[in-house]
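Troubleshooting log. The previous run stalled partway through. Resubmitting the same two chains, unchanged.
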Amino acid sequence: MATHAEQLTPPAVRISGLTRSFGARDVLDGIDLDIPAGQFVALLGHSGSGKSTLLRAIAGLDHQVTGSGELAAPQRLSVVFQDSRLLPWRRVLDNVILGTRGKDAAERGRAALTEVGLAGRERAWPNELSGGEAQRAALARSLVWDPELLLADEPFGALDALTRIRMHTLLRELWERHRPSVLLVTHDVDEAIVLADRVLVLDQGRIGLDVSVDVPHPRSYRDPLLGEYRERLFAALGVTEDVQGATT
Amino acid sequence: MTERVLDGSTAIRPRPADHEPEHGRAHERAPVTRRSTRGLAPGRRLPASRLTGPVLFLALWAAASAAGQLDPGAIPAPWTVLRTAAHLWTDGTLGSDITTSLRRAGYGFAIGLVGGVALALAAGLSRVGEALIDGTVQLNRAIPTLGLIPLFILWLGIGETFKITIIAIVVYIPIYLNLHSALSGIDNRFVELGEVLGLSRVQFIRQIVIPGALPGFFVGLRLGVTGSWLSLVVLEQINATSGLGYMMFQAQNYGRTDVIIVGLLIYGIFGLVSDSAVRLIERRVLSWRRTLSN
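Second attempt completed without errors. Output:
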């Protein structure tokens, strides 16, 4: 059945034999990866494992990096960065519609802001937003493009724990409404298993583990069904029981 | 990859002044001993604090003159200076001198501004422009512009063209340097953003590079304004037959310190007014920054 579905809708992202190097170091060493349209994928890995390099390669941002391999990604893709990357000299709405064309741009921008819960803040300056609000605005900016693929590079990494949980709910809701393919880069195992339907672990420049998380949504962090996934992922990341107890 | 947290480009300043009033009150009550940190910020600004010093100075000057403590030949009384100014104004010489000086500074400044901005844009936005322009301007900058006066007199004579040229050179250098460094120092994260959003080169320059470089431009603009007055004073005092500097130079020959002080005051007013005007424009244009420093 899976193969049947894949035949109907071609994968949103198709990567084969992707290699990327900084100097003599191969950060990505022959990655093969297909992301079916509409799938929510999380990419885990240690810092420096090449998660961001992979995301930047898909986004078409790594001009300076030498590499080889095949890579196909949709034209309509959006990126959410760890920092909101709002231009401080443009008001929130003008940031959200930056680069868009058409008469209804402002209209779509307002709709996107409403969707992320920022209705009424259109005229605010980015400096006036809290960290969570700024990241919501960044999400709205990516929504305006109606992306087939949403790339998110540790988008909640700089947020406090409470805000992060709220943003998780928001991201999942947005995904359910618009159904883009999502590649969420994170170092947070819990974030990955609560949000994603498929979790990849990047290790030594290759995808070391590829698991489907078959737990119904909405998921809670305390869901006992997630425990098993958590252990497998921690093991794949090389985190021992002791350290795990200390960090979670 | 992206380890920089939040926006580094917007200079978020802490505002210790917010805590200051509370801190002061805590000292007054002080029946409960509780740990209170030493306030390191200078505290709240006194009302009209900028005027306090000048007004005090003026009062001292007037008092000393009235008491006969100052030699009126060396330092005339404030009212003498005012009377001289009124006299010079009514006989028409002061008005025409001011016009001449303003025209020189105005033309020189305008040409320097346009030149500095054009060169900085060319050098900051294209690699070819940078290769052609930047080194040349850096070399030009190394030579003190006022040192070029003898050469320019030989080339252009001692007329208005020469004066305006020198002022323009003094003005364009700080404007070029600051704008160019602001243009080339654009945050790489915003370059990435522009790429991700598929901005065209023109959109990228208009919506990201130029607005991002405006704070740097205003630094250069203010230095340029100051530079235009500075060079005006020097030029008018060495080789001129009209203008405020010439008026002061003549007054020196006749020992008229009151006239010299009138000239100095007018120069001071020029500087103050133009600097305030630039600041006002800066505050308007960079209103997005005001939310930080209130």
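Takeaways: Chain A is about 35% helix and 25% strand. The first strand of chain A starts at residue 13 and ends at 22.
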